[in-house]
Amino acid sequence: MLKKICVVAVVLILSACGSQPADKRFKGAGDFDKVEAAKTRVSLGLTYLKNGSFSQAKFNLDRALEFDPLSGQANFAMAFYYQQVDEVTRAQEYYKQAIDYSNNDPDVLNSYGAFLCKQGDYEQAKRYFLRAVDDKRYVSTAQTYENLAICAQTQGKIEEAIAYFDSALNHQPTRASSLLFVSQLYMQTSQFDAAKRSLFKYERSAGVSKESLWLSFQVAQGQNDVRAAVEYSELLRTLYPSYPNTAKALEHIGKFQANMAITQKIRPDNNARSQVGDIPASSTITMDDIATSNAANPASQNESNLASESTQMTQIPAVDIPDAVATQLRQFHIVQAKENLYRISLKYNVKIRKLLEWNNLEDASSIRIGTKLWVKEPI
């Protein structure tokens, strides 16, 4: 009985305190901020969604909308939730509300454009992508132009795709993914010189990757440059022996053997094989994650061979090449650890001035590990 009386007394005291005018210096329950509470629920909901707890995600996002029904972020997050569970109609409804309530936030416009592209509605997707880049406040213009370019490519609009990749590169000239994508399109449309130029820029920016070597091999084939094709195939075999396109390159090179004399065969060094690790995923989803969740590939995987190889286009680690291989590759050299332009010039008996000229380098300090240098005048 005493315990019950004490509990009742505490409740009465708390009730009395709640009825008294609050001290302005004290922020208590009477100052409950629904807007901040909604933001907290959005963050929780996205975290649960990231971890695959869809029911908990939905619960928290529902609560967020209860606290602040006109929140652009909450509606945006709910649109993303319905997109993940393939409820297209509801996702579309919440995207439109998010756009209205966020005052045409360009991140929301970009994400909705990517969503529409996945539904195959290119014209509407383009409309929202262009609305996003038209906002002078927008800082991810290059990303959105790249999204639009990939979307155009999936619809077979190759010229438009190239134009939009160019727009992306105008805003971010060293954007590795756009450089690699547009190189692929140039190669597919037999614009081999343009492909070669964009691959050169890509390798200066991101270093050599299995995708760039495969494209370089294809470009060399297109230009009937057998020697370069052989060199690229050997690099693929040495550095990326398990890459599916390495076998394709070696198969093609086998057809050339009868028509050319190869005085010395380059053998792969197993110690040079590199592993490209996966980038760890964040444990939570943020609003920025939603805005960029479709960025690498707004189109479906089975519709685009180009987009299917986009998962490791940025931050590709440089690779070391065995001395035996590097010495025999007379057209170009890939910079290794502890090398400088002076050592490379001695190795290939070429003047530093020529290396700077052939590779468009400002000075000898412009090279880094993974940079591909032409050691003879490019054709």
TrEMBL record:
What residue stretch is flagged as signal peptide?
1-21
Q: Which residues form the LysM domain?
A: 331-375
The record's TPR repeats, renumbered to this chain, cover 38-71, 142-175
Q: Does the keyword Ribonucleoprotein apply?
A: no
A Pfam match is: LysM
Record SUPFAM superfamilies: HCP-like, LysM domain
Q: Which UniProt keywords apply?
A: Signal, TPR repeat
Q: Which PANTHER family match?
A: CELL DIVISION CYCLE 16,23,27 (PTHR12558), CELL DIVISION CYCLE PROTEIN 27 HOMOLOG (PTHR12558:SF13)
Write the protein's name. Answer: Type IV pilus assembly protein PilF
Q: Which organism is it from?
A: Glaciecola punicea ACAM 611
